[in-house]
Specification:
The complex is a heterodimer of chains A (301) and B (287). Chain A has 301 residues and is an alpha/beta fold. Chain A is built from 12 helices and 10 strands. In chain A, a hairpin with a 2-residue loop joins strand 1 and strand 2. In chain A, helix 5 runs parallel beside helix 7 and helix 11 crosses helix 12. The N and C termini of chain A lie far apart (60 Å). Chain B is built from 12 helices and no strands. In chain B, helix 8 packs across helix 10. In chain B, 28% of the residues are buried. By secondary structure, chain B is mainly α. Chain B folds into 2 domains: 35 residues; 224 residues, MetI-like (MetI-like fold, Orthogonal Bundle), CATH 1.10.3720. Classes of the chains: A alpha/beta (301), B mainly alpha (287). The complex binds adenosine-5'-triphosphate and magnesium ion. The site of adenosine-5'-triphosphate has 11 residues of chain A, from strand 2 and helix 3. Chain B: Keywords: Amino-acid transport, Cell membrane, Membrane, Transmembrane, Transmembrane helix, Transport. Chain B: This is Amino acid ABC transporter permease. Chain B: Belongs to the binding-protein-dependent transport system permease family. HisMQ subfamily.
C-alpha cells in the first residue's frame, strides 16, 4: 500500500464526491448543449499492453470514452475484453501504457488506487455478491468501511439504490435466496451506492437464464438514460444497438473497429467483424460456412 | 442370515461373474456364514468377560458411590472449570497466532511464507507433551527471572496455543483459499484495501467454512489440557486429570478417574455431535 496523502486526495477532488445525483443533473444539462464525443473524456486509454507471461493479451489499445457515453465492447472469446475492462480499475496491472479515469492517471504507481476504485463501479459476470451478508448489508458495508459513511447515510443510499433496481422488497434477503437476475441487480445497486462516475460491466447477463436477462438490461438502460458513463462487455447485440453510443470490436488484443452501433454492427468494414457477427447472430449457418471455407482451402493444393 | 440387506448392493456385481456357478458355497452363502461367525465370536467374548470378571471387585474399584459423591461439587466447580479455562485460553492464543501464521503463509513476501512454513512443520511434528515440558522447565532455566504472565494459566495458554496454532494456521489458510477469488475482486473493485477486504469479506466467509475443523481442534485441546499435569500446579489450579489422579491416590480407589473421564465425555461427545451436524449441513449446502 502506498501512503501518499497528496495523491490520494487527487481523485477525490477531481471526482466531485458525495453527490452523484447532482453531478448527473449537471451532466444532463451539458448533454443538451454538447453532442456526445466532444465532451471531455472520462476514460482515456493510451497504448495499453498486457501480457500474462508469454501470452500477449492486449497489444496496444487506444480508447477514449466521453462523459455520459455508453460504449459496448464486443469480440470473440479470448480477445482480451475482460482484461481491458480489468485494466481500467487496475484489477489487472497493465504491462505498458496509461489509463486515465476522470483526469487521474490510474496507472501512476503513486496513485491511491483504492480511492480511484471508489469512483469506478464494476459488475461481474458471476455477480460476486457477499454471500454472508444480506442484500442491504451488501450495499451498506462497503459504504461504511470504504467511504466511512455513518449508518443512517449508508442505509439511505442502500434503500434508494435498491429502489432504483426494483428490489426494495428483497432488502433483508440473503443472496442465495435470489434468482441470478435479482443478484445481478443487487450487484449493480451495490456499485451504484458508492456513487461511481463510471460503471464497468463484464458480460453482466452471460450467466443468466434467458428469461432473466431483460430485467438486468432494463436497469442498465435506465443508467444509460441517466447519463452514466458506461463500458459494457456484452454479447447482447440488441442492447448494443439500442443503448450504446459506440461499439468497439476487439480481436486478438487490438481494437479492430470502433464506431456507432449502426456502423459496426449494421455495416462492419472488416471481415473479422463480419465473421464474428455472423457467428453470433446465426451460429448454425456460420458453422456451415466455416466448414465449407476450410473444405475449400483444404481441398486446393 | 439371508436378509435382503445382506445382498451385494449393485445388481451389476453379478455382471462381472461371468464364470458359471462354482461348486460349494455361493457368494451369498459365504457372506452369511462370515457374519454368523462374527456374531458368535462377539457373544462368546461378552459371555467370557461376564463370567471371568470379578464384578464386585470392579464395582468396588471403579464405581464407589460414596467416593463419587464426595467429589461433587468440586470436580465441576474446580476441575472441570479449570479444564474449560485452560482449553479456552489455549484456543484463543492458538487462534490468534494461527491467524497470523496463516496470513504469513499467504503473504507475497517470501521470508514470511518460509517462517510460517517452518513454524508449522516444527510444531506439528513435536509431541504436545514436549512443548509443555519446554514451557515448564526449559524456559525458566534458559531465562531465569522471566515470568510468563498469568502464572500457570499463562503457561498452559502458551503451550496449548503454540501447538494449536500450527494446526489452525493450516486450517485457516485452507479456508481463506476456499473463498472464491471473485469475492476479493468485488471487494477491491469497491475500494476496499487488501487488508480491509480480508477482514470484512474474506475471513468471515473462511470461518464459516472452517467452523467444523476448528471445533474439532477445540475438542483436541480440551483433552490436551490434561498435560498441565507436567507443569506442576497448585491445588486450586488442578484440572480434571490431575484432580482425578490426586483423589485416586488419596482414596486408593479408581472411582475418581472414572468420574473425571465422564466429565470429559460430557463435553467432547456433544461437541463431536455438533461438528458432525455442521459437516452434514455444509455437505448439503454444496449439493
Ligand atoms: N489471470 C490470468 N492469467 C493468465 N492468463 C490470463 C489471465 N486472465 C486472462 N488470461 C488470458 O488472457 C486471454 C484473454 O482473456 P480475457 O478474459 O480478457 O478474454 P475475453 O475477451 O474476456 O474472453 P471471454 O469472452 O471468454 O470472456 C485469454 O487467453 C486468457 O487465457
Ligand atoms: Mg471475459
Amino acid at each position: 500500500m502506498t501512503e501518499n496523502p497528496e495523491k490520494s486526495e487527487n481523485p477525490e477532488k477531481s471526482m466531485e464526491p458525495e453527490n452523484p445525483e447532482k453531478s448527473m443533473e449537471s451532466e444532463k444539462s451539458v448533454e443538451a448543449v454538447e453532442p456526445v464525443g466532444t465532451r471531455r473524456p472520462e476514460i482515456r486509454i493510451r497504448d495499453l499492453h498486457k501480457s500474462f507471461g508469454d501470452n500477449q493479451v492486449l497489444r496496444g489499445i487506444d480508447l477514449d470514452i466521453a462523459q455520459g457515453e455508453v460504449v459496448c465492447v464486443i469480440g470473440p472469446s479470448g480477445s482480451g475484453k475482460s482484461t481491458l475492462l480489468r485494466c481500467v480499475n487496475l484489477l489487472e496491472e497493465p504491462t505498458r501504457g496509461q489509463v486515465f479515469v476522470g483526469g487521474t492517471e490510474v496507472t501512476d504507481p503513486d496513485v491511491d488506487i483504492d480511492a480511484v476504485r471508489r469512483r469506478i463501479g464494476m459488475v461481474f459476470q458471476q455477480f460476486n455478491l457477499f454471500p454472508h451478508l444480506t442484500v442491504t448489508e451488501n450495499l451498506t458495508l462497503p459504504q461504511r468501511r470504504v467511504l466511512k459513511r455513518d449508518k443512517a447515510r449508508a442505509a439511505k443510499a442502500a434503500a434508494e439504490n435498491l429502489e432504483r433496481v426494483g428490489l426494495s422488497e428483497k432488502a433483508g434477503a440473503y443472496p442465495s435466496s435470489l434468482s441470478g437476475g435479482q443478484q445481478q441487480r443487487v450487484a449493480i445497486a451495490r456499485a451504484l451506492a458508492m456513487g461511481p462516475r463510471v460503471m464497468l460491466f463484464d458480460e453482466p447477463t452471460s450467466a443468466l437464464d434467458p428469461e432473466l436477462v431483460g430485467d438486468v438490461l432494463a436497469v442498465m438502460r435506465m443508467l444509460a438514460d441517466e447519463g452514466m458513463t458506461m463500458m459494457v462487455v456484452t454479447h447482447e447485440m440488441a442492447f448494443a444497438r439500442e443503448v450504446a453510443d459506440r461499439v468497439v470490436f476487439m480481436d486478438g488484443g487490438v481494437i479492430v473497429e470502433d464506431g456507432t452501433p449502426e456502423r459496426v454492427i449494421g455495416d462492419p468494414a472488416h471481415e473479422r467483424t463480419r465473421h464474428f457477427l455472423s457467428r453470433l447472430l446465426d451460429p448454425a449457418r456460420a458453422q456451415v460456412e466455416e466448414e465449407r471455407n476450410q473444405g475449400l482451402t483444404g481441398g486446393s493444393p | 442370515m439371508t436378509d435382503p440387506t445382506a445382498q451385494p448392493a449393485p445388481t451389476g456385481a453379478s455382471a462381472f461373474e461371468v464364470q458359471p456357478k462354482k461348486k460349494g458355497l455361493t457368494r451369498r452363502q459365504k457372506r452369511g456364514l462370515s457374519r454368523g461367525v462374527q456374531y458368535a465370536v462377539f457373544v462368546a467374548a461378552v459371555a467370557a468377560l461376564a463370567v471371568a470378571a470379578d464384578w464386585d471387585r470392579l464395582r468396588n474399584q471403579f464405581a464407589r458411590p460414596d467416593i463419587a459423591e464426595r467429589m461433587f461439587p468440586e470436580v465441576i466447580t474446580l476441575a472441570l472449570q479449570n479444564t474449560v479455562l485452560y482449553t479456552v485460553s489455549g484456543f484463543t492464543v492458538g487462534l490468534a497466532l494461527g491467524m497470523v501464521i496463516a496470513l504469513m503463509r499467504l503473504s507475497s513476501v517470501g521470508p514470511y511464507r518460509w517462517l510460517a512454513g517452518i513454524y508449522i512443520e516444527i510444531f506439528r511434528g513435536l509431541p504436545a507433551l514436549l512443548i509443555f515440558i519446554f514451557i515448564g522447565v526449559a524456559v525458566p532455566l534458559a531465562f531465569p527471572g522471566t515470568e510468563i504472565i498469568g502464572g500457570t494459566y499463562g503457561k498452559v495458554a502458551l503451550a496449548l496455543g503454540l501447538v494449536a496454532a500450527a494446526y489452525m494456521a493450516e486450517t485457516i489458510r485452507a479456508g481463506i483459499q476456499a473463498v472464491p477469488k471473485g469475492q476479493m475482486e468485488a471487494a477491491r473493485s469497491l475500494g476496499f484495501s487488501p487488508a480491509r477486504a480480508m477482514i470484512s469479506i474474506i475471513i468471515p466467509q473462511a470461518f464459516r467454512i472452517i467452523l467444523p475443523p476448528l471445533t474439532n481442534e477445540l475438542v483436541l485441546l480440551f483433552k490436551d489440557s490434561s498435560l498441565v499435569l507436567f507443569l506442576g500446579v497448585t491445588l486450586a489450579e488442578r484440572e480434571l486429570s490431575k484432580y482425578g489422579r490426586d483423589l485416586a491416590s488419596t482414596t486408593a480407589n479408581s472411582t475418581p478417574i472414572l468420574v473425571a473421564g465422564l466429565c470429559y465425555l460430557l463435553v467432547t461427545i456433544p461437541l463431536g455431535f455438533v461438528v458432525r451436524r455442521m459437516e452434514a449441513k455444509a455437505q448439503e449446502a454444496v449439493k
